[in-house]
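Milestone M4 deliverable, item 7.
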Amino acid sequence: MNNSPARLYHAALRVALSAVLAVAALAIHNGAHAASATSGTGSLPRTTPRVALNFAIQIDKFLFFRIGDGAWPTPGGTISQVAFTLTPSIPAVPTTPAAGNNTSVNWNGAAPGFVVAASGNVLPVEVRSNGGQVSLYATVTTPLTSGSNTIPMSEIVVTSSDSTNLPAPPIPNSGNGTSVNVNGGGSGAVNSLVTIRSANWTFSYANSASRTAGSYDGQLRFTAATP
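Output delivered:
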């Protein structure tokens, strides 16, 4: 089971200024009226110049999302690998079966049980954005398959160390799952308009039914989206 590498979108602040300057000009008339202008009995007409400034401010959105490595501010990283190994044990002791032929074992005939050992199943998750409400959802890109046998991807369960602010979305059997919302704000956020959240997601295998032996491989993709 894998996840997509983190993606980073940069934000820019652009300010465009345009100025319109209105200047009123004083018209000098012909010489017949010039005498009255110098007689001291009148005053020059006054004008009020006006200046207009048009502002255009654009604040672009950014969205950073990662599972595994590739922490902020350096995007990238590699696709993480989560593995589950099931080891059978048979009653009554219980006893782990030994590989080989004609091997004696104490078994009372009851159904064997399985112990699940996970590796790489705790992954750091980080979301940063100024784009409003951030939602997360999971997509099954490749089902869990071993030859002609499959296991529903929904048997992989994800829990978050901060389920309130950065919950893990449910994993569907196939296609896209339902989305969950990330709470805005967070440690380091300048205000509620910016989201900075981090948590650890733990993946586990529900093992709710008996399965045919084999090595099952599949892939998940997690997506962060803003309006």
